Amino acid sequence: MKKFMAVVGLLVMAGLGAFALTASNYWIYWVSGDTVIAGITASGRLDTLAGATFGGNISLSGTLTVGEDDTGYDITFYGATAGAALQWDESDDQLELVGSANISHASATNAGPVFVSVNTVAYTDSTAKDLFVLPADADIVDVVVIVDTAFDDSGTDLLNVGWSADPDALVDDHNVASAGVSRMGSGATMPYANIGDVGSSDLTITGSYTGQNGDASAGSATIYIYWTTGTPGS
User: Which domains does the chain have, with CATH numbers?
Assistant: First the structure.
């Protein structure tokens, strides 16, 4: 059974001994059995000593800081659907949507974010290179290829982008011998094909370069895939 105790002065508790009231000790304790599990210091700081779960509503009237510079903590906001959450991942240094969680503007209808995944294919990537992973049920809405440095094989210079079962599903033998920008629908090698739902499992997008004579010494292309989540019109 958990008990709430307010302290003004010296606290003496069976099994715990005496606590002198100093800035490093606590004005208020949360106690489970004979163990102090959390407390508020004389300076107003809330310390968790052995883990504590707070039920009900909590209101803050000041600044909330979690961790400190160069030392952070994971923060998770759960949704009403199993597996759906908004998470600050301290080890990745990024805010992440987990499961079916999504973001939309409160006053918008049928709206959601468009994400972009980016990676490069170089002249040395003659076998399929894993570029990035799209989450299950993502919808591909656009593909852009920017040839930053022209590929210089003495024969043809071709780029493919797709996935393991269909390595040229999105970009099919696209000529990368000249620097420039190409977008889905700009030609036969980048048709409006295989856009839409990626399926019920995460999908790893791959890219590869084919030099006809295998003697290229330069070349780099950046692949952008734009995608969204959720069901259109829902």
Answer: 2-48 (no CATH), 114-228 (2.60.120.380)
